Amino acid sequence: MLPPIASMFDPKAVLRERMKGERKAAAKARPDAGVHAAAHFMKSIPRSEGAVVSVYFPMRDELDTEPLVAALIEEGASVALPVVAKKKAPLLFRAYRPGDDLAPGSYGELIPAETAPEAVPDILVVPLLAFTSEGGRLGYGGGYYDRTLEKLRKTGAPLAVGYAFGAQEVDALPLSPLDQPLDWVVTERGARMCRA
Question: pLDDT at residue 2 above 60?
Answer without folding.
Answer: no
